[in-house]
Amino acid sequence: MDPLTAFGLAANVVQFVTFAAGLISKSREVHNLAKGTTNDVLILDTIYTELLALSSKLEVSSQIDPDITIVPGKSALVNHTVAISKLSQTCKNDCTKLLEALRKLRGIDGPKSRWKSFTIALNTVWKSGEIAALEKRLHNIQTTLTLHICAVTSYWQEDYSQQLISAQRACMNMTMQQTSKLGEITNMMTELGTRINTARSNSSTKSFQPADIASLGNQMSQLSLSMEDIEKQQAIIKSLSFESLPARYSSITEAHTQTFQWVFQEPDDHSAVSSTGSVRKWLHGGNDIFWVSGKPGSGKSTFMKFITTQINTQKALESWSYPKSAITASHFFWNAGTPMQRSRQGLLQTLLHEIFCKLPDLIESSCTRRWSMPVDQLDLKAWKIPELHEAMKCIADRQNLPVKFCFFLDGLDEFEGDYVDFCKALKDISQSPHVKLCISSRPWNVFEDSFGRETSTKLCMHDVTRNDIRLYVQSRLEEHPRWRELNIEVDNAQSLIEQITEKAAGVFLWVFLVTQQLRNGLTEYDSFSDLQRRLESIPADLEPFFKQILNSVEPFYHAKMASTLRLALTATTPVNAAIYHFHDLEYEDKQYALKLECFALDDQQAKCRLAQITRRLNARCRGLLEVNQTTKNVEFLHRTVMDYLRSQEMSDYLDRKVPEHYNVHLALVRAFTAYVKSTKFIATPAPHSLNEYSLSELVVKTSLASYTRHILLKQPDYFSEFTTPVLSHALSFVLKSPSLQTNNIQSDRATSPRQLELLRCLLEFAFDPNQIYGSRVLTDRTPWRELLLNTLPLHLDSVTDLSNLKWTLKSGLLSLMLSYGADPNAPVLHHGSVLPTAWMVFVMASFSLTREMSCQEEYLQALDDFLAAGADLRTPASPYSNSCRKPDAFWGLEDFIDRLPQRVERSNEELLAAVTERLLSTGRDRGAEINCYFQTLYGVFAPKILQTMRSRLLGPSSRTNSACLCSDSRARKRVSADDEHVNHRTKRTETLSDQIQ
Fold first, then answer.
1. What's the rounded Cα separation, in Å, for the pair 547 and 513?
2. How, if at all, do strands 458-460 and 290-293 pair?
3. What 8-state DSSP symbol labels residue 598?
4. Helical axes 528-537 vs 494-504, angle rounded to 10°
């Protein structure tokens, strides 16, 4: 229920009470008698006109919307609203009596009669007791209304308090910087509470005046809009996030203590730092793109992670951005990760996510189309690259930004796409005076050509990390308890550190693996000469080193080593460590997945299983595969490992060692089957990954219609765990499908048969498409409304909306929902206001459909289904003026026909003629006098089309121009007896134009 509903009702009551009380008050009477001037003389016509206007408003207030009485969980609020409506009815009755008295007075003394006081005039037609009774009723109404308004305002204040708490929690969870906005809302609510407490304590002596109601309504409106802004900001930021967004960052090794400190030091002219460009200098003042280059494994990603998290980086950037603030955002590409982690879309969503978290006020101006959507629909609309580009460009091109941006992008060589276009796009972004970029990649030619021309903005990692490598090696060896003993036994033990540093050639990954092996040697009490021989035996290049590592695995493990590595290479993204646990069971029984009972391990059992598989992977892969302790997924040690294992040489090597008849794809299916059967998943309203789905949600996501029918026969409450209706859940996957998300209006792709079959199955089992699960009438969500909001063209000129409509028509989705009880007269929600009913918006969409869209036949079929389902032709296109229109008029039909002259074109004439004929035929069957509508149609359609239409509807003897004879009849139907109704009709038509267009 909208918070302004009760205030709208109360405003009408207060206006009448104030006006009526002023008319009959004794002080007014004495005042008028004493002064006796012309200005104080009351004219009956003036009073009558004002009371007539108040009567019309009270008529609306006393007719409570029946939907309000069924709002779940808000009985107290409903009771107060209904009580205010009843007060409106009482006032309406008194207003009617006053109007009747005025009519008598006008009959006695003429309409221009003047009186010193209304009370004196009223005494001539009313008894004295009646006036006193009215005065008492007005006082009681004032007092009662004040208490109801206080109660309603307190209710919404508490409701907004709960929303504010939720918003604050969400803000903390999303690390959003909304402190200022949330503070404003807190202050508004505090002020509102003070006003209500004051009004409640003075309810018997001081009542609300019209200005008070207007002020309260304005405060509530501002509070509602502010809360909606917060919700939209959080919803849009949440929609930009994706499950794997933080995964790559968390998997990158933290920089070792004391390494990379040279970044923030004054460069020495003789140092390697100054010869390849100063990062520090660029951070403090550079505006170009800074390129961090380096060999595979040289520590580029670790360096980028280091520099993005250092407070000194922020301080340096503040000197560059002064007097503005500096905002940083980062993205780490990952070739071995999910598609989002290696795509342009993933990059843009990550950057916008970080920007908007820090500057949420930029969202409205940067995402105007998405901002115009209802909050409840923001999580259903997938982002597309053009929209993301538009948002980023809007930020970069914006004038007078209070901040500057520095973006850190790691692993450009792991990007999936055209590198030349990608480099150009990055250079275009950097042209903004508000933006600069620090990027890293391998030294490929495409990056050298784009970013390597200037040595002052280029850094080669393998040339500047010699000292960092020495510090790392020294630290790792000295941490081992055996090193101190060795250092005592041998005078030149430190020379081993220098040998490793020299042989590393700037490759940190090689150093990491070497120090691991040497630490193993220390554990085995190797002598210094043994350690030297170990170092000498290790190849200087990574690939032969990897081969040596694999050959060091015990032959007993070779089969499992090969199949495990094959599994990791075949999986499109890193998978949970449990998959590798179940994969091992295949060696004992290939049918293990089918035989496995459904059960879920407790936390302790899962922890033990994770420890077991971690040790097994170490034994058979020697650290080339490792478990990410944050995500619990198994990942390659480094991209170079994955690249090497995918070479033809290593592919043949692994093929020779895997068990005979081994099928890695089938092995993955078995392991995932066992994983699903033995894992307790977390159900979420908007799932994004396997780990977040319950089994019932997987059934819906994969559109298992046959299984759904089977399980519902056995367990009718199978989907009871869902927090939203299962139909909405199923539709959300449909609405996110590539078919709907395409911008190509010529596309013939439609919903997959499996998705439609699942929806049909759910509808057959009586899942209600009209099931309400929102908290307020004006924002109630139903599965049917969600479909309408995402497919009907609420803006008629929007190509995107029309493409969605075409897609839905081709799929038959609207007809399917209507055939199972979807309400054709359901109001469609948009921009916080109620638009016309579903069928009326659907009819208006016909104005924008042309032959070229090749969906007119499907449109007419859907229109027939809307009409057969009970579309109400009496409902106007505008939701206003219910109190003024005739209850038996076919306003919806008239609204459509009124718009035809401006909308019919050659490309849509045939379709609109067919639509018009269907509507007139239905109107005729429901009692409308359709002959009179042909006056408007004359000249709109070609004579032949119009004559054929008349013949079908009115019989072959009718003639086209005979419609002119009915103009007076139609005018009598469409125009009320008094001028006020005519004016209201004009205003309603203007409102329709504003809302629909």
1. 13
2. parallel
3. P
4. 10
Query: What letter represents residue 589's amino acid?
Result: D
Nearest to 658 by CA among 590, 587, 578: 587
**Encoded tokens for 515:** 């120090």
828 touches 785 (CB < 8 A): yes
Distance (Å) of CA 526 to CA 108, 483, 489, 504, 707:
124, 10, 12, 22, 62
CA distances from 708 to 691, 713, 718, 722, 820 (A): 21, 9, 9, 15, 18
- DSSP-assigned letter for residue 59: H
Q: Indicate the SS3 state at residue 586.
A: coil
Neighbouring CB atoms inside 10 A of 696's CB total: 20
Tell me which of 900 and 411 has the higher pLDDT: 411
The amino acid at residue 682 is I
Give the residue ranges of DSSP H helices in 890-956. Answer: 891-903, 909-925, 934-937, 943-954
End-to-end, the C-alpha distance of the chain in Å comes to 26
Predicted pLDDT at 523 = 93
Higher pLDDT, 402 or 964: 402
Dig out the tokens for 257 from the structure: 């203590």
Q: What single string gives the DSSP state of each residue in 358-423?
A: H-GGGHHHHSHHHHTS-GGGTTTS---HHHHHHHHHHHHH-TT-SEEEEEEEE-GGG--S-HHHHH
**Could you tell me if residue 258 is left (phi over 0), alpha (psi between -120 and 50 degrees) or otherwise beta?**
left
Q: What letter represents residue 842's amino acid?
A: F
* Residue tagged 């058979």 (tokens): 620
Neighbours of 326 (CB within 10 A): 20
- Amino acid at the residue 906: R
The CA distance from 576 to 631, in Å, is 8
Mean pLDDT of the chain: 79
Q: Is residue 327 classed as helix, strand or coil in its secondary structure?
A: strand
Residue 626: burial class (beta carbons within 10 Å; 0-12, 13-18, 19+): middle
Of all residues in the chain, what percent are helix, strand and coil, respectively (each to 5)?
65, 5, 30
Number of helices (H) and strands (E), helices first, in the chain? 49, 11
The neighbouring-strand residues paired with 576 are 633
Calculate the alpha carbon distances from 162 to 165, 167, 227, 250, 376 in Å. 5, 9, 11, 34, 18
Nearest partner of 304 among 265, 339, 271, 330, judged by Cα: 330
CA distances from 700 to 669, 688, 713, 734 (A): 19, 13, 16, 10
The residues with which 459 forms a beta bridge, in sequence order, are: 292
Put residue 341 in one of left, alpha, beta given phi > 0 → left and psi -120 to 50 → alpha: alpha
Q: Which amino acid is at 229?
A: D
Residue 987 confidence class, pLDDT cut points 50, 70, 90: very low
Residue 226: predicted pLDDT = 76
State the Cα–Cα distance between residues 465 and 471, nearest whole angstrom: 10
Q: What is the rounded distance in angstroms from the CA atom of residue 53 to the CA atom of residue 15?
A: 11
- CA 118 to CA 135: how far, in whole Å? 13
Alpha-carbon Rg for the chain in angstroms: 38
In the chain, the amino acid numbered 774 is G
Q: Is the pLDDT of residue 652 over 90?
A: yes
Interaxial angle between packed helices 4-24 and 210-240, expressed in degrees from 0 to 180 and rounded to the nearest 10: 170
666 Cβ neighbours under 8 A, 6+ residues apart: none
- What does the pLDDT look like over 494-535, one tens digit per residue? 899 999 999 999 999 999 999 999 999 999 999 999 999 999
Nearest by Cα to 645 from 653, 657, 656: 653
Q: What is the DSSP letter of 41?
A: P
Confidence band (pLDDT; 50, 70, 90) for 883?
very low
Sign of CA dihedral 901, 903, 905, 910: negative
Sequence length of the chain is: 997
Tell me if the bond preceding 481 is cis, omega within 30° of 0: no
